[in-house]
Specification:
CATH superfamily: MetI-like
Order of helices and strands: HEEHHHHHHHHHHH
Largest sheet: 2 strands, antiparallel
Strand order of the largest sheet: 1-2
Low-confidence stretches: none
Structural class: mainly alpha
CATH architecture: Orthogonal Bundle
Distance between the termini: 52 Å
Number of helices: 12
Radius of gyration: 24 Å
Strand content: under 5%
Number of strands: 2
Number of domains: 1
Shape: globular
CATH topology: MetI-like fold
């Protein structure tokens, strides 16, 4: 079957993108999936297909604890980040009349510095002799440094929420900008107050942005291993830290691959539920 001239041109245009997707996305994922069905004993790699890695990943209590903790941290971070991002996006969209580009530019300033550097800065702020403890002691609010600020779940949540805040603000802002302001005027003419307008018009129409922000924050945070390692301590370690250990010190790449695939499937399931829930609620203006 011969392609038409337009078909050949279209194939030429998509070929670089398709090749990039296959080499950089599909191939590594295929390798990880394949590894998860193999076994490794130190330097010996057995390519016999087996489900032993998945049995260990799903049946070992420590892996279950880490996965559940990762889900808990990721969901809390997502909830906090989106909840705090919505008022900022709402303010930019509805209240700022001039120089919106400047405000958006200021929101992106954290991207100017390394992610690792920002995590280290939070470690300095929350540390035993850090900025926060020193400031509170200097003002006389506390007599000795607080020890619960760092190396726990709360420190991980705070650091991740700060790091991913801009990613949550921008999609919500775009969704709010697309809302037809005449709908709000119509709701006001019909007697709706500000609160009723928000829940009946603004929030449903902004739901695509909320869902996008939720997924943008949820998916990467559950796989983060730098932040838990630096500010989490033993109570803040996540499943990604165990995956890193399996690929590194433990020298058991197949088990690490099985843990990674398991995490990916769990996150994919949650993401589908969130997407369907947002799609059902989004755009439904009463």
């Amino acid at each position: 079957m011969r392609l038409s001239r337009e078909g050949r041109q279209g194939l030429t245009l998509i070929s670089p993108t398709l090749a990039y997707a296959l080499v950089m996305l599909a191939a590594p994922l295929t390798m990880v999936v394949t590894f998860s069905f193999w076994t490794q004993n130190y330097l010996d790699l057995d390519t016999t297909l087996t489900l032993d890695n998945y049995r260990e990943a799903w049946g070992t209590p420590i892996y279950q604890v880490l996965l559940l903790r990762s889900l808990k941290i990721s969901l809390i971070v997502t909830f906090v980040t989106v909840l705090l991002a919505f008022p900022v996006a709402y303010f930019l969209s509805f209240k700022v009349k001039r120089r919106k580009a400047l405000w958006l530019f200021l929101i992106t300033i954290p991207f100017w510095t390394s992610y690792l550097l920002r995590v280290f800065l939070w470690k300095v702020i929350l540390g035993y002799n850090g900025v926060l403890n020193s400031a509170l002691m200097g003002m006389g609010f506390i007599d000795e440094p607080m020890t619960f600020l760092l190396y726990n779940l709360n420190a991980v949540v705070l650091t991740l929420a700060h790091a991913w805040a801009p990613f949550a603000i921008l999609p919500i802002f775009v969704a709010l900008e697309k809302i037809d302001r005449s709908l709000l005027e119509a709701a006001e003419d019909l007697g709706d107050g500000k609160i009723r307008q928000f829940f009946r018009v603004t929030l449903p129409l902004a739901m695509p942005g909320v869902v996008a922000s939720t997924l943008i924050v949820l998916i990467p945070t559950i796989g983060d291993f730098i932040t838990p390692k630096l500010v989490g301590g033993t109570d803040g370690l996540m499943i990604a830290n165990m995956i890193q250990i399996q690929f590194g010190k433990a020298n058991n790449a197949p088990l690490g691959a099985a843990l990674a695939i398991t995490s990916m499937l769990v996150v994919a399931s949650i993401s589908v539920v969130i997407f369907l829930a947002g799609k059902k609620f989004g755009g439904k203006v009463e």
